[in-house]
Design goal:
Helix content: 25-40%
Number of strands: 6
Oligomer: single chain
Largest sheet: 6 strands, mixed
Strand content: 15-25%
Number of helices: 4
Shape: globular
Radius of gyration: 14 Å
Structural class: alpha/beta
Length: 140
C-alpha cells in the first residue's frame, strides 16, 4: 500500500499540512471527541464508542498505534477500513504528510464518507502540534 511508503519514524512538526488539507476538503459533518493523556487513551476511545453505539449512533474511531494491520486504526461501528479504501486516498501524497498525518487525514474523510455521527480521535504524540488538533472537538 502507498501508506507503507511513508516512514513511521519521520516527524515533521507543524500543523500547516493538516490545516491545508482541512481547508481544501469539506468540513466534517460529525461531532468530534478528542482523547488525550498519558495512559488509557485506547481504552477510553473504545468505552466511549461502545456507549454511543449502544445508543444507536454510528461511530468512527481513530486510534494508534495498530497491533497487526494499519486498518485497525480507522474503524466505523467495529468494522475496520478496507485496504481498497486506504488505496483510494493515494492522492494525499501531494500534501507530503507524515505517516500519522496521512492516516489522520484518511480517517477525517473516511468518517465523513461513512456518515458517522461521532468520531473519536486518539491523539498521537500529543501537544499543540498533534495532527488531530485541526478538528474542533465537542468533548476533549
Amino acid at each position: 500500500m502507498w501508506i507503507d511508503e511513508l516512514k513511521e519514524d519521520r516527524i515533521k512538526l507543524g500543523l500547516e499540512r493538516m490545516q491545508k488539507f482541512i481547508k481544501e476538503t469539506r468540513k466534517p459533518g460529525y461531532k468530534v471527541i478528542h482523547v488525550g493523556g498519558t495512559n488509557g487513551k485506547g481504552s477510553v476511545c473504545q468505552f466511549v464508542a461502545s456507549i454511543l453505539m449502544e445508543d444507536g449512533k454510528k461511530v468512527g474511531v481513530y486510534s494508534s498505534p495498530h497491533l497487526e494491520r494499519v486498518n485497525e486504526r480507522i474503524v466505523v461501528n467495529g468494522e475496520e477500513i478496507e485496504d481498497e479504501e486506504i488505496e483510494s486516498y493515494a492522492y494525499l501524497k501531494k500534501y507530503n504528510f507524515t505517516y500519522f498525518e496521512a492516516l489522520t487525514a484518511i480517517a477525517i474523510d473516511y468518517f465523513q464518507r461513512k456518515q458517522v455521527e461521532y468520531a473519536i480521535f486518539e491523539v498521537g504524540l500529543g501537544g499543540r502540534l498533534d495532527a488531530t488538533n485541526v478538528l474542533p472537538a465537542c468533548i476533549t
